[in-house]
Structure formats: structure tokens, C-alpha cells
Amino acid sequence: MAIQELIEDVERSYRETQERLSDPAVYNDHREAAQVGRRLKELESPHKLAQEWRAIQEDLDAARGDGDLRELVPELEDRLDGLEEALKLALVETDPADQKDVLLEIRQGVGGDEAALWAGDLYRMLARYAERLGFKTEVLSSSPSESGGFKEVTFAIKGEGAYSKFKWEGGTHRVQRVPQTESQGRIHTSTATVAVMPEAEEVEVDIDPNELKIDVYRSTGPGGQSVNTTDSAVRITHLPTGLVVAMQDEKSQLQNKAKALRVLRARLFDLERQKQREAQEATRRSQIGSGERAEKIRTYNFAESRVTDHRIKLTQHRLDAILDGELDDFTEALAAEERSRALEA
């Protein structure tokens, strides 16, 4: 598409979206209004660039036709090229889920107790990152290990654009360090996996109660002893997909069921998105990483204070700061790489 057409397209979309937002039928439908509002927000930056492009194009036309201003032509042409590039980047389609809250599941991988401790470190790193971004964290369920880490932990992060920040954390995180229990000072390699899912709203995932098998049982603590005397723990099986979610952290069966449904909804939403991704072959090819648990995304080496992200070959020697939630450099580099790949595609 020629740049002139692109500019007109942006201006038309912006105008039409503004009109839709002021339509009483849309305005009175909260869900629709929120959706149109989000679209308008997305178009604001491209629209501003389009206006700027028009102004500079006018200046350039004037300079070309005026002997006194001709020396400005190269500079104005450069600015116009830069704006065209910025506009194309701004129009690269973003993932509709980017603005959503997010659910994360961290599980210990290979390495026994040390892997559980590492899962705990990853949880703290991601919770600190959320805190730095001004987001709220809520633990939905956890299975602590006796050594002080987690066998697994599921938590929600709430905030505008949470998924766009945390989607890069999905996959296998590998650690190389000397475990506290190691008397010979040998370096061990352990892993923990992170699954990242946008939190789905009820209207987005319709769960048929007839397709659920719900079991209740007594919750157990570490070591298997019964924690309370009522059947408050809940296990939900989604029969069509075989997905199972168990929840036992709350005292009441009702609360555990509500939390389990939240996680199930997010997993079903994620499953649907995966199917769509696979159908869009070109999109899948342009992705940096699929966020699959099996995919090794980062290595954290304690001896050298080194963290390497294998997807973009980015290495930083400031392990402590990164484990304290300073992940912005990785997030920004991964997002930039995705944008440039999308542009090529």
C-alpha cells in the first residue's frame, strides 16, 4: 500500500472509530464501548504520525517550489522517511490479548529440591517486576516444597497491558549455580517452567456446566496430612479437553471452585489462541518464541552473574538486579524484535 493510501486509511479509521464511540447504541453498551475505546486509543499514535506526515509533506512541496527554501529539501525528505517508518511500525497489528490481565503458572522442572527453590526465585522475580510496573499480584494456588521453594505456584497479575509485559516469560528458565545443600561446591543445572496466559473474561469463554466433572476432597499440606476437616478442596475436569484444575488454598469450597474456574477459563482461552496461531502459519513463523514450556528461553548463571535470553541472544551481567525484577531490557528487546519481524512479514 502506498504511503498516501496508508495515511488516508488511518485518518478514516480514526474518524469512524470516533463516530462509533459517540453513537448512543455503542455508548450504552459497556462492553462495546470499552472495545471501541481501546481501538481509538490504539489509533491515536498512528493518527498523530499521519497528521505530522501531512504537515511535513506540505512543507516539502513548498520548499521544492521556492528557491530560497530549496536547501531544506534533504532534511524534510529525511524527516518524511523517518515518519513513514514510524507509522508502519505503529500500525503493526498488536495481539488483542496484550491489554489483558495475566495468569502465570510456575512449576519446578528437573533438579529436585533445587528446582523447587529456583521456582520460588522465579516467582519472586516476576512478582517484583509486577510491583515495579505498578501492577497487583494475587496468588491463586501454591504447593510449597519442604525446602522452601515451590513445587508449583499459580498467580494472577492485574494491570493495564499486563499480558504484553509478561508474555515473554513463558517457557523454561534454566539456572546454573551451587545449591546450598552441595558440600563439594559443584555447579548444578536446574530448571523451572513458566506458563503465561491472558486472563479470559466470562463472555469470552463459555463453559458449559454439563461438560465439567467436579470432585471435592479434603485439602492436604506438605507431607500429606489433612489440613482441615471439611471437603473444601475442589478438582474440576473439563471433559471435552481433559484439562484438570485443582484448588485447595481457600477455606471454602465455593472460593476454591471460583478460583479453579478462573484458571480453567484462562487455559481454555489459551488453547483456543494456540489453535488460531497454528492456523495462521505466517504469524507462527514470525514469532520469536511460542512460550511453550518445553522451550528453553533463558539461562541464569550465578558464578558469572550472567543472564542470557536465547531468543534474541541478549546477555547481561547483572543477575541480582534481574532477579530483583529489573526485566525491562529483555521485555523491550523482545517486543522490538517481534515488531521488526512483523514488519518484514
Short précis:
By secondary structure, the protein is an alpha+beta fold. Helices cover about 45% and strands about 20% of the residues. α1 packs antiparallel against α3 and α3 runs antiparallel to α4.
List its salient traits:
single chain; 345 residues; alpha+beta; eight-stranded mixed β-sheet; three-stranded antiparallel β-sheet; 11 strands; flat
User: Percentage of helical residues?
Assistant: 40-55%
User: Any idea what the radius of gyration is?
Assistant: 25 Å
Shape: flat
Give the structural class: alpha+beta
Describe the structure.
This protein is of the alpha+beta class and 345 residues long. Helices cover 46% and strands 21% of the residues. Strand 9 (296-301) and strand 10 form a beta hairpin. Helix 1 runs antiparallel to helix 3. The longest helix is centred in the N-terminal third of the chain and has 35 residues, at 30-64.
Any chance you could write out the topology, listing elements then pairs?
Elements: H1 3-22, H2 24-27, H3 30-64, H4 73-90, E1 102-108, H5 112-132, E2 136-144, E3 150-158, H6 162-166, E4 171-177, E5 188-198, E6 212-217, E7 233-238, E8 243-247, H7 253-279, H8 281-286, E9 296-301, E10 306-309, E11 314-316, H9 319-323, H10 328-344
Parallel strand pairs: 4-9
Antiparallel strand pairs: 1-3, 1-5, 2-3, 4-5, 6-7, 7-8, 9-10, 10-11
